[in-house]
From TrEMBL:
Signal peptide: none annotated. Pfam families: Integrase_H2C2, rve, SH3_Tf2-1. This is Gypsy retrotransposon integrase-like protein 1. It comes from the Eukaryota.
Length: 387
């Protein structure tokens, strides 16, 4: 802008230049965004009781311990109770269902909703049919957005931290300590509910030292039910307040996302896409544009992607940005469809470095704010030169 104002002037020059730059497809694909993340926090609904809604995830990359190399983390979204289940390998969809039946559902019953990432186990037809048969909804996070299942991701981090402290001298012994890491988490109060997961689910705190416990009479069944309901009601109110605090804190670092419509064209962030390019440093920061095929909710959309890209088409709004259109900028020649093929570069053919046409386009803009090459405006009058 500074260089242009030194030599030219025309009415509404600054807004026209900004409009031209915002609509430049080359800039849109290759410039990093310095803006805050798009999309305000969309918290999941608060469950009404323990183990009605759960989230699951895997911990992998562990050394072999008693024949186990992975952990399945299952979290109750209401009480924050967790079960850590050691596994010999990353299971298939069918094996995951069997583990859930044997280790979770036999204790707590069937949930109404299961939140997971888009791992191969959870996007398979078997898993979808399994959830349908037990009366549960299979809720999947948007592509390359693990924050959508942040509760389970955070517990996985805590698990790894605890195991590092316990098995620093012998990493292969991690499976022996898994039970006590789980017990420690479930017996300690959480900031979300203000009570331990044990107390939230069962209505009492498990004794740590049984010999020091005083003799108490067994409460009646009605008293136990009333106490559990009081605890659940208090826990739910605390969860709602905590969720509001988390949302306010998160939204301070975010901005409202644009309201997208089906058919609207958007750019897609290329950072996490499995694109085979010669240099990630010099690769485009965004690919596309792609049309929006469906708006799932204010924080997630589904795009119409080429089959060659081979990724799930649902993305969080922080991973896309709208295409800016302007009458001053002609529609660019669409780039080759992105794919996992190593031959794809993500650039226009005419933008190859060193090409004659590319040098001409960089040297003389085709049209900028009403100026034609040669220094004349679209109206035919000469522009006003600066000092």
């Amino acid at each position: 802008m500074f260089a242009i104002t030194q030599r030219f002037w025309w009415p509404a020059m600054e807004p026209e230049v900004r409009e031209y730059v915002e609509a430049c497809s080359l800039c849109a694909r290759n410039k990093n965004s310095s803006r805050t993340r798009a999309g305000l926090l969309q918290p999941l609904p608060i469950p009404s009781r323990p183990w009605a809604e759960i989230s699951v995830d895997f911990v992998t990359g562990l050394p072999t311990s008693n024949g186990n190399t992975a952990i399945l983390t299952v979290v109750d979204r209401f009480s924050k109770m967790v079960h850590y289940i050691a596994l010999p390998k990353l299971p298939s969809a069918k094996e995951t269902a069997v583990v859930m039946m044997d280790s979770v559902f036999r204790i707590h019953g069937f949930p109404r909703d299961i939140v997971s990432d888009r791992g191969p186990q959870f996007v398979s037809r078997f898993w979808k049919e399994f959830c349908k048969l037990i009366g549960a909804t299979a809720s999947l996070t948007s592509g390359y957005h693990p924050e959508a299942n942040g509760q389970t991701e955070r517990l996985n981090q805590q698990l790894e931290t605890g195991l590092r402290c316990l098995v620093a001298q012998c990493p292969a012994a991690w499976s022996k300590h898994l039970t006590w890491v789980e017990f420690a988490h479930n017996s300690l109060p959480t900031s979300a509910t203000g009570m331990s997961p044990f107390q939230c689910v069962f209505g009492y705190q498990p004794p740590f030292f049984p010999e020091s416990e005083s003799e108490v009479s067994v409460p009646s069944a009605h008293a136990l039910v009333r106490r559990c309901r009081r605890i659940w009601a208090a826990a739910r109110q605390t969860l709602i307040r905590q969720g509001d605090r988390v949302k306010r804190a998160a939204d301070r670092r975010r901005r409202p996302a644009p309201v997208y419509q089906p058919g609207q064209r958007v750019w897609l962030a290329a950072k996490e896409l499995p694109l085979q390019v010669e240099s990630r440093k010099l690769a485009p920061r965004f690919v596309g544009p792609f049309p929006v095929s469906r708006v799932i909710n204010p924080a997630a959309v589904r795009l119409r992607l080429p089959r060659s890209l081979r990724v799930h088409p649902t993305f969080h709004v922080s991973k896309i940005k709208p295409v800016k259109e302007s009458s001053m900028v002609p529609d660019p020649k669409p780039p080759p469809a992105p794919s996992n093929d190593r031959r794809w570069s993500g650039l226009h053919c005419e933008e190859a470095v060193g090409s004659t046409e590319a040098r001409q386009r960089l040297a003389v803009p085709r049209r900028l704010g009403g100026i034609r090459p040669g220094g004349t405006t679209m109206g035919g009058s000469q522009p006003h030169h600066g000092p």
